[in-house]
């Protein structure tokens, strides 16, 4: 009797929280079409992942009431999202953290109720909700790191072509903004062109070239790219010969790429020796097996 009296209020509270979050979700889904239409007309911010999953109301509620608590985590994820190229529709760090907390809360409530109904134990249901409810949030926290690393690798692969094209256009007496624009047109839909487009937008809005390059530096994590960008900023400040500076870095980067390719080929040769030997031995055994069997059955051994 005591167990039932204790279980009933907790089940009612869990059901009430689930109903409240579900109502928020339905309300945001119903308002998603006006949000998209307003952003399409240029009014208001474009919808991001928070709007797409219909969690704008609980996320804004969490930000409004618990910003001092979650702002530290928001700043950490903000840097990751910047380096990842602002995925998920340009969501901010504090929005992303709030969305993870809301999804964890929903997962905890729903899974606790389901496991409690399935096992008949409220304690077991709560334990299962705590254990499995936060898994989606942990996964999407890791996803931000993966996107950051993937973008870093993409920019590292695309940067040598960018540098060669800039050097070639600079030799043709083009200005640096013209060289950047030519690259953006020559390599659309790439990670490097997205960053260059942002630099060109900053310059068009009145930001100086040096400041635009400094902003680019804060969005890049690839070390070889940062080395060139910092050299360009220093060269613009000191008034150095831009063409010679870029040409020197292009030669250095080309040498590093050849050196890296040589090391990779040597590693590949070392790794392929053992499989190749096993294949040769297997072929020899396959060819000699009938003769060995015949000699064994004839009594020669």
Question: What are the defining features of this structure?
Answer:
Receptor-associated Protein, 13 helices, membrane, 85% helix, 301 residues, mainly alpha, single chain, Tight adherence protein C, T2SS_GspF_dom
Written account of the structure:
One of its GO terms (cellular component) is plasma membrane. This protein folds into two domains: 2-133, no CATH class; 151-254, Receptor-associated Protein (Up-down Bundle), CATH 1.20.81. The chain starts with a helix and ends with a helix. α1 (2-30) crosses α6, α4 crosses α6 (93-119) and α4 (56-83) packs across α8. The chain has 301 residues and is mainly alpha-helical. The chain is built from 13 helices and no strands. It is flat, with a radius of gyration of 30 Å. 85% of the residues lie in helices and 0% in strands.
Provide the fold topology.
Elements: H1 2-30, H2 32-40, H3 49-52, H4 56-83, H5 87-90, H6 93-119, H7 122-132, H8 135-171, H9 176-186, H10 191-204, H11 209-219, H12 223-238, H13 242-297
Helix pairs in contact: 1-6, 4-6, 4-8, 6-7, 6-8, 8-9, 8-13, 9-10, 10-11, 11-12, 12-13
State the gist of this model.
It contains 13 helices and no strands. With 301 residues, it is mainly alpha-helical. It has two domains: 132 residues, no CATH class; 104 residues, Receptor-associated Protein, CATH 1.20.81.
Largest sheet: none
Structural class: mainly alpha
Q: Which stretches of 5+ consecutive residues score pLDDT under 50?
A: 32-44
From N to C, what is the helix and strand string? HHHHHHHHHHHHH
Mean pLDDT: 78
Number of helices: 13
Shape: flat
Residues in helix, % = over 70%
How much is the radius of gyration in Å?
A: 30 Å
- Quote the beta fraction: under 5%
The domain count comes to 2
Q: What's the end-to-end separation, in Å? A: 83 Å
Number of strands: 0
